[in-house]
Amino acid sequence: MRSVRPARALLAIALAAVLAACSEPAPPPATVDAPPPPMTTADAAPAADSADVHRFKIGTLDAAVLRDGDIRFPNDGKTLGIGAPKAEVDALLTKAGEPTDTVHLSVQALLVRSGDRVLLFDTGAGDADFADAGRLPVSLRAAGVEPAQITDIFISHAHPDHVGGLVDDAGQAVFANATVHLSAPEWQALQADASNAALAAAIAPRVDAFAPGAEVVPGVTAVAVEGHTTGHSAYEIVDGDARLLYIGDGAHHFAVSVQRPQWTIAFDGDAPAAEASREALLARAADSDVTVASPHFPYPGLGRIVRREGSFVWAPLQ
């Protein structure tokens, strides 16, 4: 794996577990008992033009979810639902139509055209050895965009499945004309990590380190989500009355993380803070009825968070 791998001990344990992952494809996600809220014209999505590109609208903005790949790791209590009874974890997975031996996370990026800007939210895992990924360049071109056309990249955080696509095998910046936006605390942490020295050097000339919660560019506002990393950010994209919340790693699994936000996941750097912020983010999404985009939920990862029985459920857009 290239130098973008973080040095956090918990993440290292979790990523090591994926080497034992199975190769069977995960079944399609089960929908919740009640249908999701009706799609509005602003949300309506035409059919995808390829298996790796899912086009939709945010108001008048053209958008697309781009598939990068998949991460799989054993459901052994060391990564997802740490400390929770395995029977309870298995029950949630079974009800959602998921296998109980292996956990599957998608890896996706979000593309948005806004005026003369071409925006990309996260860059996938690249050739990271813990994922079956690296398809973002092909997906991007299938969407009709070349890397040189990207004007702005919004990084949720510096874990390798989100920044792995920033540089190529030679360590050169892939998106040569793009400003790379990430929060100032996240940029400081990335620079302080010796294993990320090459990545930091490659992108430093084009980094915009913003204050947490800032409006980064017109129509895109960062949302601080504490605990996963030092400066993790979700992003809210607004066009008129239409809004979309890109949650980054605010929640990892569409069933377990959403229905049990207080359960620990090994990827979080500060588990208590992450659990509190995860619950707050889900409550915000549910109470505002905003469309959510998750890079790790089943492709294309678009839907809504709905309150149910004292917790939340994921309602994928149909």
From TrEMBL:
Residues 1-26 form the signal peptide. Residues 106-296 form the Metallo-beta-lactamase domain. InterPro entries: MBL_superfamily_lactonases, Metallo-B-lactamas, RibonucZ/Hydroxyglut_hydro. Residues 25-47 are annotated as: Disordered. Keywords: Hydrolase, Metal-binding, Signal, Zinc. Residues 25-39 have a biased composition (Pro residues). The keyword Signal applies. Belongs to the metallo-beta-lactamase superfamily. This is MBL fold metallo-hydrolase. It comes from Luteimonas fraxinea.
